[in-house]
TrEMBL record:
This is HAD family hydrolase. InterPro entries: HAD-like_sf, HAD-SF_hydro_IA, HAD_2, HAD_sf, Pyrimidine_5'-ntase_YjjG. GO terms for molecular function: hydrolase activity. The keyword Hydrolase applies. Pfam families: HAD_2. It comes from the Bacteria. SUPFAM superfamilies: HAD-like. It comes from Solobacterium moorei. Keywords: Hydrolase.
Length: 225
């Protein structure tokens, strides 16, 4: 029986795509202040950044070097890399209905976060969205010392919740880390595929929004008896 739910942060609790889009709009405007932010050529640069970014899986230096190569020859990559990590939290957008569903889930389940990333950058994003209050544990890989999909970080979260791994569902958007790690740890994996982007022949439950999470864990719960 599932008694606890763990969440990834970027792309699961936060709308990472929307957050990155507004961050890149701000960056391009700062780099190229003479451009009209509503012009198609400005939007073209922003959309290229989104493609280069690959949903956050690519080091920002890669994106910045491409911006320098194609659009901003005098761009200081190191300066803008630092700006990304010190400013990105200001552009965070929560997933629609996440606050309401977390409030409801907390009444029935123990819930937590496991997120990969540096302690400072992840902490400020979580706090900017005022989400820490919903969770019984928050584990950031940079502070813990290992990253998902290492089983030990899942086991630490289970210990914090006072549950066995098999009593916990893990919801995350990145198959190679979130889902693989949950399976290895013996948790119930749930692939968060916002806008139904996930395609896999591996049999794994999928949800695409927080209404579906509410339905699975609070309404149609016959599977969890």
């Amino acid at each position: 029986m599932i008694k606890g739910i763990l969440f990834d942060f970027d792309g699961t609790l936060s709308n990472r795509v929307e957050s990155a889009y507004f961050m890149y709009r701000w960056m391009v405007h700062e780099m190229l202040p003479g451009m009209d932010v509503y012009d198609i050529e400005f939007e073209r640069i922003v959309q290229r950044c989104m493609l280069w970014d690959e949903y956050g899986t690519i080091n920002k230096v890669h994106v910045l070097e491409l911006l320098k190569k194609h659009y901003v020859p005098d761009l200081d990559v190191e300066v803008w890399k630092e700006k990304w990590y010190t400013t990105f939290h200001e552009f965070q957008v929560e997933m629609p209905h996440s606050y309401e569903v977390l409030t409801e889930l907390k009444k029935k389940y123990k819930i937590g976060i496991i997120t990969n990333g540096a302690e400072q950058s992840q902490s400020v994003k979580i706090d900017y969205l005022d989400m820490r209050k919903y969770f019984d544990t928050v584990i950031i890989s940079g502070a813990f010392g290992v990253h998902k999909p290492d089983v030990s970080i899942y086991e630490k979260a289970a210990s914090d919740l006072g549950l066995k791994c098999e009593e916990i569902a893990f919801i995350g958007d990145t198959f190679a880390t979130d889902i693989v790690g949950a399976v290895r740890a013996g948790m119930m994996p749930i692939w968060y595929c916002y806008e139904h982007r996930g395609i896999s022949l591996y049999e794994v439950k999928q949800v695409s929004n927080y209404d579906e999470i509410r339905d699975m864990f609070l309404i149609n719960t016959e599977w969890n008896q």
